Amino acid sequence: MAQNLFVKCKECGTIIERKKYAENNDVCNVCDSYGTLDYKKRLAMVIDHDTFEETNIHTGFYNPIDFPGYLEKHEKIKSKTGLTEAIVTGKACINEQKVMIGIMDTRYMMGSMGIIVGEKVTRLFEDAKKLKYPVIIFTASGGARMQEGIFSLMQMAKTAAAVSSFGESGGLYISVLTNPTTGGVSASFAFLGDIIVAEPGALIGFAGKRVIEQTINEVLPPNFQTSEYLFEHGYIDMIVERKTLKDTLGQILKIHSQEENQIFQ
Ligand SMILES: [Zn+2]
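Above: query sequence and zinc ion SMILES. Below: predicted holo structure tokens.
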């Protein structure tokens, strides 16, 4: 019971009342570090109440290279979380504006990208193109999914092509990078947004810091691969706190949805 009433901040170790923590959008009130959100909490935080309609629901399972133990892992996560993949997609409204939205959930295999994630991201952009809705994706990923080998890597090209086609039709894509956004996801659709937003303090990068240090034989700064470092170096357009995220997204959508700005064909 006590465990359910309180949460412990992973950064500073402060014990916080769960209710207060939730009211503060799962942000520690002592050190300001951000907790990981599941897709339901993320939706509740950024969309208008009760406007989510899930699309491309997928309940099947593929094991393209017969990776040992993959199905068992899938079944275990599914029974624990209800998730059947690392991304949930759908239609929703943000400040009364329609969007197609995708939310990655790290509870499913570290939010890694395999065939189904690639397909769902692709369909999200295809649906948005047809409906002439903007796209917002919240990324949280450890990268390409090891268990699907080369098929995971192919999703980088596939999703990048879908973003490109959507962009050519005039659609707006806002990418929101959250902790962590790494590997094949950062190297594909995460960094292809027309506008790239990040949450404060998020780990964002391609390869791990230690791997890069060993490769280039140099010591990297301590804040390397954080939202703040990437913002300073021009990779990110804005860092937005959770408490203002919905309104910021709403404003961006509004600016780009005015009739005179519409360039859909
Ligand atoms: Zn803390």
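The radius of gyration is 18 Å.
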